[in-house]
Amino acid sequence: MATIFSRIISGEIPSYRVAEDESHYAFLDINPVAAGHTLVVSKREVDYIFDLTDEEYADLQLFAKKVAAALREAVPCKRIGMAVMGLEVPHAHIHLIPINAESDMNFFAPKKQIAPQEMELLAKRISDAFKGLKS
User: Fold this and answer.
1) Which residues of 16-44 are buried (b: 16+ CB within 10 A; e: fewer)?
2) Structural domain spans, the chain
3) Active site annotation includes 91
């Protein structure tokens, strides 16, 4: 059975897409730790990030780096925090979170409530910034 991320990538479940290439998909987390919290996933369904091939792992990290640059441009913050846990969804993914302090990466804090219209605007700003980056 396909993971929720595979269903999002295929378009079966809607998402706030911010970036995509032939092997990766990035979209806003609908239960964000902070405004702009983005998930970067491999399109190939692999449960554990360290089960990706070396090339896939490196490519995922490089794609996430480019998404992080776009996210930092689109959402005012000091840094983009990165987390990989992999227990909540059995599909290799990276969390990118705009932060101003280390405490902003608290996954146990109540999730932010962001209106759909604001999510759409955030996704567009990040996507536009991504498209404007030099490869």
Assistant:
1) bbbbeeeebbbbbbbebbbbbbbbbbbbe
2) 4-130
3) no
